[in-house]
Amino acid sequence: MKVLITGAAGLFGHGLVQVFGAKHEVFALTHADADTAEAAATRGMFNRLRPEIVIHTAAIPDLDICEADPAKAFLVNVEGTRNVMEAAREIGAAVAHISSDAVFDGEKHAPYVETDPVNPQTVYGRTKVEGEGIVGHLPNHWIFRVPVLFGPGKANFVSKGLDKLRGGEEYVVASDQVACAAFTLDMARVMMEVIEARSYGLYHIANAGACSRLELVLRAAEVAALDAAHIVAKPTDEMKRRAKRLKYSVMELRALKQAGFSVPRPWENALEEYVGMWKTEK
Ligand SMILES: NC(=O)c1ccc[n+]([C@@H]2O[C@H](COP(=O)([O-])OP(=O)(O)OC[C@H]3O[C@@H](n4cnc5c(N)ncnc54)[C@H](OP(=O)(O)O)[C@@H]3O)[C@@H](O)[C@H]2O)c1
Question: If you take atom 32 of ligand 1, which residue's CA is the nearest one?
Fold first, then answer.
């Protein structure tokens, strides 16, 4: 397959390029190659490369940046997605769009399934819901909702914590935000299975299990044999972030299971592999 990946220099893009590139012809499109917020540039690039599949990861994923500048967040995350969808439609490519657990309101007390109503609490979450709606207009599309990501190639929630602990600095982490967690390489592998099977639709994807942000960092520190004394646990309300954080956004991978795909391994095992990579990345 000819697969174009937007946001290829990003955290998820890095993992997707690695996994898909081992098996398929990949066009790794970075921000410098084309600004997805510009329709003509996006269309021109797609027409020249003519991929069969487009995996759209280019976005502003930072909740606080989106909250501070909604116009920019909507331009990149919504209009950018519209441009990608239109350009893909013109050349008959199927689109896999990356969404987030931030589409939910965090008020549920049991794992969210794909059919649960969305009710985003942040600007970022609203852009993700709109992006899903836009991609949903294409007959051949996938929407993959992912939780917090960790993986090689770019700083992420886990690596930032480990870097700080190794430098003897404090890492302040929310003690009351429970969600799934996802290793980018495992997510890329499961996406490749679903995409190769042409099994279109909306999927929650994550490593099996759930944890708080605090548990995630504590486990990473333990695996890395770093002193966890500098991990400072705080309730979300005391962290004074610009954008609201969800206290509960665990996702059930119901669609994946119902379609007969296997669920990625538990987050603890994936984290162990990733921490090994983090050690050698430095
Ligand atoms: N990270 C997470 O924990 C997480 C959780 C849930 C969902 N997601 C979603 O997963 C996807 C990938 O996130 P990520 O963590 O890989 O983000 P990332 O590391 O910030 O990567 C996003 C990439 O998109 C590029 N980009 C931004 N604006 C662009 C534009 N106008 N045109 C072209 N490229 C542009 C960025 O390039 P520059 O840096 O050069 O601007 C960056 O390389 C996003 O849709 C995000 O919302 C992420």
Answer: 35
